[in-house]
Amino acid sequence: MARTPHAALSCAPSVPPGEAWQFGSHSKRRRAHGVVIRVCHAGPAEAKSLVRGGLAGLWAVDIPDRWATGCPPANQYGPQILGYVPVFITTGGFQLVPKRLLSMALLALSIVAFPAGLVHAANDVSVQCGFFEYVAPDGKNEGNIEFGANAAQGLSGDLFVIAADAAVPANLSDLAGGSPTCLELTVDAGVITQMQYAAGGSVSGPVVVYGDPEKDPDNSVFVAAGRIAVPASAVVSELGLKVVFGNAVASGENATVVLDVDPKSGSVQSFTASTRLRGVVVMGEGDISVGPGTLSEKLIDPDSRTLLERAAKLGVDAKVIITSHGIINSDDGSLKITTELLVSFANPKGSLAGPCDDPAYYGVFDNSASSFAIRFRFKWTTNSGSHVVTKWVPAGAIYRTWEHWAKPSSLVRLSYKNPDSGLWVALASGVAVPGSFPPCVYQHGFEKPAN
To answer: Is residue 12's pLDDT more than 60?
Structure first.
């Protein structure tokens, strides 16, 4: 049944099936027959999947691999059908389908089972943030806005078509070419019908460097999530920016930028930029390295330094959340940045296993997260008194003691020796219980878990 409309349309001039291309400002003239469709897609493969799965069997059209432009951003709306006009495509242009065939084509359209979520709903509203290039609509001609695009830097991004009669901010052109903002977009059938400044929004993604920040900072830029561009000269001069964007590049971690925007002018009033570092801590004379990144001595508060020193002495990986808050002075454009560090790390782990047998308990010394050996201790009590087992566990290893009978109602404890303070730190404890239990089934000794 899916091919019936195609058969009906075949009474058109006999030409071989060809390519269906988006019509409008990006239309291409190709010899074909069937239906011209407008398809938004994340890439040629997705377009082909959509057309072949829901349309190709109906109208025998195909999408060429080179068709990858001219659509609104797929990462915002996903693949979708934006519209359709039954026509014949010839080398001379478009020809409307005869009325006797048009009704059959529309009937076929109504019975096509489009994949869920692919058809674009009218009047979608979303907030888009970042720098952009802009062509204003003039009442007669459509405009467009391309987020993440900068002609001077040769950057392209996500293109949206703007209806000729769309309501847009009067000063939007003043911000184009570099200044970030946040806009609330109302989209109908893939075309923007209204834009207004949003009070704020956020972007998150990897940071990419364009140019050479060290040799030519004035002509280089850090771009976060393809939407926020920070001049390299600012990153070099402002520690609060360098610690976020520089470390995001070094570590490969995403950066998140939250913008606070004046809804009247579209100007950014303040922002929050954050990223994270993870890895072994290496103490320096001033600066501190965490994994592939570096924390400037000037930004490390006393509490954060203490935690980083502990992580370094334990040899465990630390995680540092870096957050810089920036406030822009509306009078002179000056920038004030404060930076906060949130440090955490995993201490050596340990647990008590049991009761088993008569009853017995054994200790599990877990040093798998550390980068050097840690000393553990297991203590229990019998009728003859207290007993202790200690063991140095190499970095990355786990050790299980032999099982030991413990006097009912006595305390069983497990701890490790902090290499910083020299004190024993409790990891686990419990009270021995009377009774008989299933046998202890486990592997005594060392284990080195696979990474």
So the answer is: no
